[in-house]
Every structure is written in C-alpha cells, then in structure tokens.
Predict the 3D structure of the following.
Amino acid sequence: MRAGQIAEEFPVVGVETSALVAARLIAQGRQPGIVVTGADGSPKAVLPASQVVRIMVPDYVQADPALARVLGEVSAEKIAERLRRATVADLLPEPPMDLAVVKPDDSLIEAAAIMARLRSPLCAVVDGKRVVGVITAAHLLGLVCRDEPS
C-alpha cells in the first residue's frame, strides 16, 4: 500500500492564518495537528495540537507547573482572545521542527519511519509542492491493528 492511497483530506493553514482559526480546525476534527503551508502552497511545518494548547498556559507556569495550582482558571474567552491576536507563525515551535513529508508513491513503512524519527503525529503527502493529503499516526495504527481480534 502506498501513501497516496491512504492519504486523507486534512485542513491546511497558512503561516499568517489566525491561531484561533487553526485551533478551531484542530478541535473540530479532533486532529493531532495541522499542516502549515507557505505563500506558494507548499508545506512548511506541522503545528501539533500541543503547541496550540501551550497558549493556554503562561510561560512561567510551563517552567514551573506547581504554579498552576495557585492560579485560578483562565476563562475560555481570555484564551480565545490570545488566539485571536496570534497567527499560526506565532505558535510554531522554536527551533522549527523538521517537516514529515512523503511522496504519494512512498510506502507506509517509509511514512511510519519518518513520523517515528521526527516524533510527528502526522505526515504530509506531497506531490510536487501540493499537499494531497495527510497520514496520521492513528490512521497507520488502525491499518495495522484492524485484523487483530481485540
């Protein structure tokens, strides 16, 4: 089986897209992340959902999680406002992660290998510069485990 055969349609955003739009796309599809493209439409990064969640927690609390106990709950509206003010580029990890990309004719083992090496929850299937779909780790595992009795 080839990557292009199992690639799924997946939301793609640009680096200048509102972080709130990206967060909504991730949440609505319960996705592990989202593919980020440059102005030319070619993939530039994967924005893991965990990076979006980071905006919920101030940096000093991320550095010392014990402080989370003494902080009150942050309202959803305050978090949404932070996301409104940010772009996808603001949420991308520093330094940038290597991008997990495979070609449509690559094997599933090749896709799994790059995802494992980069610790990426998904990989983009790219034909030339165009994203034709995405393979998630959950989809790969589903293919492997489907014939096994539970």
Q: What stands out?
A: The chain has one domain: 3-145. Residues 3-145 form a domain with the CBS-domain fold (CATH 3.10.580.10). The chain is about 40% helix and 20% strand. Residues 61 and 71 are 9 Å apart (CA to CA).
